[in-house]
Design goal:
Mean pLDDT: 95
Low-confidence stretches: none
Structural class: alpha+beta
Order of helices and strands: HEEEEEHEHEEHEEHHHEEHEH
CATH architecture of the largest domain: 2-Layer Sandwich
Bound molecules: adenosine-5'-diphosphate, manganese (II) ion
CATH topology of the largest domain: Creatine Kinase, Chain A, domain 2
Largest sheet: 8 strands, mixed
Shape: globular
CATH class of the largest domain: Alpha Beta
Distance between the termini: 49 Å
């Protein structure tokens, strides 16, 4: 039992975390590895607590161990870009999100933040807002959906979405711990709910302006993995973790610009959807690996082959929420991105298509 981290006694750990020390603190540097989906971290001591991300030093790591460099030329640079309070070590300690650059200081292949940030700068006057609904599935250490019978399946979908009760939802402790940890860290978490498939959950981050969407969502994912580690549970963002009559996992991207949020903005939203309809396949390429297993036209998705938009329709590529249609302004929801998408790629694509009309990716 005690051969994995969740089985180690956390009260014993607390005795050491409570030890006093001088003004030094720990900064955990966090980055996206060569898979473009998994995250890595390592920790360094700072002489005193940093006031802003600008005070944080650049650092490096062995890219040959993360699928990002060869052994002969392995150093990759970590450039701090966003700083959060550390909900695990607490006190003055920090979580630091980093961009990865190679030895020539060019962005690593999976560093999509770099170009996203440039696009957000160009679109600044349009004040783009995003809210992403991150769905995910909890798995036991052995990779089996958490709480599912080891032989056979739970009952069919229906009672689980927003469910309550020991036979309806599995793993709520992880969800609550993650929510509080995000609030503490300063991640703009907006809500959470149990999903349609048992052991599947969702949290929302937003509304965030520009580059903050990708930053806060990646940090929220890190915190989820890290919280789950303490519980001895795995998280997967696989877009279709269980084949068959089980819902997949997406990352709906809610999106608006300044003019969409003003009176009569529905016209701008409709024009945006028209522009999106012409770039359906370009967008799908930015929306995550394995998404074709999820976008089947069933389980509240639109089939991959056709683009569609509609009011209150959860079988569409893009949904205009009912309230937005009634108000005549607001936002749209792109339901296509997979749970495993890179939010920097998704938000960059949205802005390029709807406001910059520039598709040079
Ligand atoms: P759903 O009904 O699709 O499940 P949720 O309530 O889960 O929707 O998520 C809605 C998301 O939309 C939230 O993350 C919220 O921050 C975001 N949102 C709300 N208003 C706007 C807006 N004007 N622009 C962009 N995102 C928005
Ligand atoms: Mn939702
Ligand atoms: Mn959902
Ligand atoms: Mn949604």
């Amino acid at each position: 039992m005690a051969d994995y981290s969740a089985a180690l006694e956390k009260i014993v750990l607390d005795r050491f975390l409570e030890l006093s020390h001088d003004e030094r603190c720990q900064a955990t540097y966090i980055w996206i590895d060569g898979t473009g989906e998994n995250m890595r971290c390592k920790t360094k001591t700072l002489d005193c607590p940093p006031k802003s991300v600008k005070e944080l030093p650049e650092w490096n790591y062995d890219g040959s161990s993360t699928g990002q460099a060869t052994g002969e030329n392995s150093d990759m640079f970590l450039t701090p870009v966003a700083m959060y309070r550390d909900p695990f070590l607490r006190g003055d300690n920090k979580l630091v999100l980093c961009e990865v650059n190679d030895h020539k200081r060019t962005p690593a292949d999976t560093n999509y933040r770099n170009s996203c940030n440039k696009v957000m700068e160009r679109a600044r006057e349009h004040v783009p807002w995003f809210g992403i609904e991150q769905e995910y599935t909890l798995l036991s250490q052995d990779g089996h959906p958490f709480g599912w019978p080891k032989m056979g399946y739970p009952g069919p979908q229906g009672p689980y979405y927003c469910g309550v009760g020991a036979n309806k939802v599995y793993g709520r402790d992880v969800v609550e711990a993650h929510y509080r940890a995000c609030l503490y860290a300063g991640v703009k978490i907006a809500g959470s709910n149990a999903e349609v498939m048992p052991a599947q959950w969702e949290f929302q981050v937003g509304p965030c302006e520009g580059i903050q969407m990708g930053d806060d969502l990646w940090m929220a994912r890190y915190i989820l993995h890290r919280v789950s580690e303490d519980f001895g549970i795995q998280v997967t963002f696989d877009p279709k973790p269980m084949p068959g009559d089980w819902n997949g996992a997406g990352a709906h991207c809610n999106y608006s610009t300044k003019s969409m949020r003003e009176d009569g903005g529905i016209k701008v939203i409709e024009a945006g959807i028209e522009a999106l309809s012409k770039r359906h396949w370009e967008h799908l390429r930015m929306y995550g690996e394995g998404n074709e297993r999820r976008l089947t036209g069933e389980h509240e998705t639109a089939a991959m082959g056709v683009f569609s938009g509609g009011v209150a329709n959860r079988g569409c590529s893009i949904r205009i929420p009912r309230q937005v249609a009634e108000d005549g302004y607001g936002y749209m929801e792109d339901r296509r991105p997979s749970a495993s998408c890179d939010p920097y790629r998704v938000t960059e694509a949205m802005v390029r298509t709807t406001v910059l009309d520039d598709w040079d990716i």
